[in-house]
Amino acid sequence: MRHLLPLLASLALTSVPLTALAQQSGLKRTLVTRGDISVPNREAVVAQVELAPGATAGRHTHPGDEISYFLEGEGELLIDGEPPRKVKAGEAVIIPAGKVHDARNTGSGTTKLIGVYVVEKGQPLATPAK
Predict the structure, then answer these.
(1) How far apart are CA 14 and CA 30, in angstroms?
(2) pLDDT tens readout for residues 6-37
């Protein structure tokens, strides 16, 4: 597993336009790689995400599923229509396409995760939600 994460990270961040979702203060997204998958009109994007203590990602959606693995830190995942979910290093979450969600770092250190997105080609990776 420890060899797989750097590979996934390098593949997803090489060319994903992350400007569609403006970087929030305290949020850093780094494209590792992106590439075609076997599902027509879909691609996989891998990104490393860092969230500073007290920072939030901002409410947003993705044009496909998000699968994220928490490497360090702790926080809260806020998905519309669901109770807040506490997350910490060693845990993973799956967020269905189109679900409005946010994440908040509730710890004293930086929260780091690897996000894998299986999204529609040609769409922004993320879109801010109202």
Answers:
(1) 9
(2) 333 333 333 334 433 444 589 999 999 999 99
The torsion region of residue 28 among left (phi > 0), alpha (psi -120 to 50) and beta comes to beta
Write the DSSP symbol of residue 122. T
* CATH node for 27-121: 2.60.120.10
Of 124, 112, 98, 104, whose CA–CA distance to 18 is shortest? 124
Return the SS3 of 52.
Answer: coil
For the segment 56-107, what is each residue's pLDDT rounded down to a tens digit? 999 999 999 999 999 999 999 999 999 999 999 999 999 999 999 999 999 9
For the chain, the structural domain boundaries read: 27-121
Q: What is the pTM of this model?
A: 0.80
Q: List, in order, residues 6 or more apart from 41 with CB less than 8 Å away.
A: 120, 121
